[in-house]
Amino acid sequence: MRDSSLTGVMVVVGVLAAASAFGWWHRRRDGRLRAVGPPSGPAADPELPAALGIRPGVVTLVQFSSAFCAPCRAARRVLDAVRETLPGVHLVEVDVERHLDAVRELDVWRTPTVLVVDTAGRVVRRAAGVPDRQELIGVVTPLLTGADR
User: Fold this and answer.
1) Residues whose CB falls within 8 Å of the CB of residue 25, separated by 6 or more in sequence, listed in order
2) 85-104 pLDDT, tens per residue?
3) Where in the chain does DSSP place strands (E)?
4) Is the dihedral of CA 145, 146, 148, 149 positive or negative?
5) For tag attachment on the chain, is the N or C end more exposed, with fewer CB atoms within 10 Å?
6) How many angstroms separate the Cα of 44 from the Cα of each of 40, 48, 108?
């Protein structure tokens, strides 16, 4: 009997340790801006950038969101703060339900997803979750000054 109760405790401890490790990993990754390897156009469809409101020659932050997404409101506040801090940044919010073709084309799996699009129309960074304001400013500033990432 003693062995079976010890086994149960070990299973519970193992599950708690695995859940804690996953939670830590997810929290560290959520909202981080990741480089998009080799910079690509917003999509294979040449009309998609204009349909989303991406203007050529302007650094654009594109947020994919949905009506019932609470983190989307927090991401919008962060993006608004970045736009107020850095003049010249254009902000576009895309409703995932209305633009399913863009969601598929740009491989958006969750909301909010934020794309940083440079002046050439290339997606250079992306974040799934609410991005950090300072990290976003650090990524966008060189794009505004014409410096490469």
Assistant:
1) none
2) 998 999 999 999 999 988 99
3) 34-40, 59-65, 89-95, 113-117, 123-128
4) positive
5) N
6) 9, 8, 15
Rg (CA), the chain: 20
Considering the four listed CATH numbers 3.40.30.10, 3.40.50.720, 3.40.50.300, 3.40.140.80, the one that applies to the domain covering 33-144 is 3.40.30.10
Q: 116 near 131, Cβ under 8 Å?
A: no
Tokens read off for 113 = 């997803």
The angle that helices 70-85 and 133-144 make with each other, rounded to 10 degrees, is: 40
Q: What is the pTM of this model?
A: 0.75
Q: What is the residue extent of each domain of the chain?
A: 1-30, 33-144
Residue corresponding to tokens 């290339």: 122
